[in-house]
Write a structure and sequence with these properties.
Blueprint: E1 2-4, E2 7-9, E3 15-24, H1 25-28, E4 38-40, H2 50-69, E5 78-82, H3 89-95, E6 102-104, H4 111-124, E7 129-136, H5 138-145, E8 161-162, E9 165-172, E10 178-184, H6 199-218, E11 227-230, H7 234-249, E12 257-259, H8 260-263, E13 276-277, H9 279-295, E14 301-309, H10 313-317, E15 324-332
Parallel strand pairs: 3-4, 5-6, 5-7, 8-13, 11-12, 11-14
Antiparallel strand pairs: 1-2, 2-10, 3-9, 3-10, 7-9, 10-15, 14-15
């Protein structure tokens, strides 16, 4: 492992030997339905609360990824997971019966890239196998960050729809699978955005910073990748990302980029405003649709950059700005 600028390069790249992405009913009605490992029509998952439903969904994704990798929970050194709920309780209840040493992470919607980055460094440092996972649920997130579901508040065009979904990847130093060639832990970026209904604007500057930094560190350009994939900027944030990269870094990203938030839903038919968001957005898309395409050889080189808005209900009520962060993971097959 060596570091160039802010980017960590792996001389012996860890491999994703198993993965699974699961989703809720609305997500299952979108363009990626055929790629999800499971679609849950009942998004309560038979649980007494939406928070426990999210935990059940995350638990399911982890078990499916382990099964796909042919790895027993007892063979896993660490599980790295987090979510959007207070004290990451969604992950805690999902993991408590697995008997695996647990590392809780909070990166907001960037958590899938954060867990993969941290997990890859752990494997490169001597761990043999780790699980990297995260989740979100529309109803649990709305209750915590916005309004009670019964309120029925109107959404502006810049607002996004929190994905009900989860994703999990098994990262190992042995076996076959997509390689994690390099990672970059993001730097917190805050341009003073305070509108909680415009997360794309809050996160786009962080994405631009990480992408430009990664390209500079590796001496590469957008043309060198089959895909540069952001996590949940949505339509609004993606347009801002193009503008920021071109004006500030002379990088033309349009044509080489897609966003999980615009892939998971049909923006014209599903009434999700600017697209999807939440930890489960990038996790479910990456761990199903994208990694399956890499397994088939359709995609060979993907730069995955998940973004997060580092806010809380308290910070928003106090009128504070919304800092953003973006972590990068270079995937090659």
């Amino acid at each position: 492992m060596r570091k160039i600028g802010k980017t960590v390069i792996f001389d012996k790249p860890p491999k994703i030997i198993g993965h699974a992405g699961v989703a809720g009913k609305k997500e299952g009605e979108g363009p990626l339905a055929k790629d999800f490992d499971m679609i849950f029509e009942d998004t309560t998952m038979g649980q007494q609360s939406y928070e426990l439903a999210e935990s059940a969904m995350l638990h399911d994704a982890i078990i499916r990824s382990l099964s796909n990798a042919g790895v027993a929970p007892s063979s896993v050194d660490f599980v790295l997971s987090g979510d959007l709920l207070n004290q990451c309780m969604g992950s805690a209840f999902a993991l408590k019966d697995l008997e695996i040493p647990s590392i809780g992470l909070f990166g907001a919607c960037s958590t899938m890239a954060l867990s993969l980055s941290t997990g890859a460094m752990l494997v490169n440092g001597g761990a043999s196998c780790v699980v990297c996972a995260t989740s979100s649920h529309f109803c649990s997130s709305e209750r915590q960050f916005r309004f009670p579901l019964e309120y029925g508040g109107q959404r502006p065009p810049t607002a996004q729809w929190t994905v009900t979904g989860a994703g999990s990847s098994v990262v190992s130093n042995e076996g076959r699978g997509t390689e994690i060639k390099a990672v970059q832990i993001g730097t917190i970026t805050d341009l003073g955005i305070t509108d909680a209904n415009n997360m794309g604007a809050a996160m786009a500057p962080a994405a631009a910073r990480t992408i430009s930094s990664f390209l500079n560190d590796t001496g590469s350009s957008p043309e060198d990748y089959n895909l540069i994939l952001t996590g949940d900027l949505g339509y609004t944030g993606s347009q801002l990302l193009y503008e920021l990269l071109e004006k500030e870094h002379n990088i033309k990203l349009k044509g080489f980029h897609k966003d999980c938030g615009t892939l998971i839903f049909d923006l014209k038919k599903q009434d999700v405003n600017s697209g999807g968001s939440g930890c489960g957005c990038s996790a479910s898309v990456l761990c199903s649709h994208i990694l399956k395409q890499m397994d088939k050889g359709i995609l060979k080189k993907v730069l995955f950059v998940a973004t997060g808005a580092l806010m809380s209900p308290t910070s928003s009520k106090q009128g504070n700005s919304i800092p953003g962060i973006a972590h990068a993971v270079l995937l090659e097959r």
